[in-house]
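Chapter summary example: a protein plus zinc ion.
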Amino acid sequence: MAHDLIDITAAVSREPGGPFSVEALKLEPPRPDEVLVRVVAAGMCHTDLMAKDAPHMPHPMVLGHEGAGVVEQVGSAVRKLEVGDHVVLTFMFCGRCASCLKGEPSYCERILPLCFGGAREDGSTSTHGVAGPVHDHFFGQSSFATWALASERNAIKVAKDAPLELLGPLGCGLPTGAGSVINSLKVGVGQSLVVFGTGAVGMAAVMAGRLVGAATIIAVDLVDSRLALARELGATHAIDARSGDVVEQVMAITGGRGVDFSLDATGTDKAIASALQVLAVRGTCGFVGGAPPGALASLDLGWLMTGGRTVRGILEGDAVPDQFIPALIELHRQGRFPFDRLVKVYDLADINQAAHDSETGKTIKPVIRMPS
Ligand SMILES: [Zn+2]
Ligand SMILES: [Zn+2]
């Protein structure tokens, strides 16, 4: 068996709060339902940094859940993919539960263990370090590595003429933001949308707002450079949350009516409270930014009912990845979804710098390029 092992280089999260450690590891070949992918580059999402630092996550582990690369081996049961296909790796889902069968894989009943369990569904792993096994299959991929194993379900075939090095963020952050606007909230022509937080998710939501013809797109953030970029990418208004009352400013922009849609991409109490307060009658507020464990919101139920308002959580932009990711790539090719404006590429050796620049807000979407 040992002669089948593949030499890989990967960024390992060894202990909560510690840095990524770039190491030489061995990877087992794909199982029958898996593909082996030579990773070209992988986006870095806040969920990677949360998982790196969370004491309740398995360690050591190879993280990375926005991989893009080339299929180099396919398991005997794989039907969707062939050797040589270009793929974007997205979140993992079981394919068998009620949500998966309904075509709503982002609400897979097994999504938490499959994405955060640090192993396959059966508990097995395939990555070996000098000091012993390393957890893998993070989001069914662990793509901060030169090679990764994915399921054929979460490896999405993409056009070969698309810029593979940039495509990784289409595995999670970008469809989350764009899908929230297009699939979940279904924002329409002439409607109004406010987006709290213009990181990669929020910026994708702003771009999607322009795509669907929203008339008023308000971006709220604390970083001037992000607000300026949000305006370039489609925001009709930008609010610096450090300057005055955000709710009052949104109300003023909308003539006192409030917005049809609000989207929180921050996960902070203050932004979530504002995202609720700015809703017009029949408005809908979506949450994609996460929330601290056990966080509760207080809602004026009379206000919610009499205005026919809706509040909902959103995971992965309600995307069906095999359809939505290629659609976003085509829109990018046409210049209508210019997500490359958010990306800065770092070499794998500089992954800790990328994490730092992501946390300080200097870089909106780091992409980690693998050594060839
Ligand atoms: Zn499922
Ligand atoms: Zn993510």
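Key point: DSSP finds eleven helices and 18 strands in the chain.
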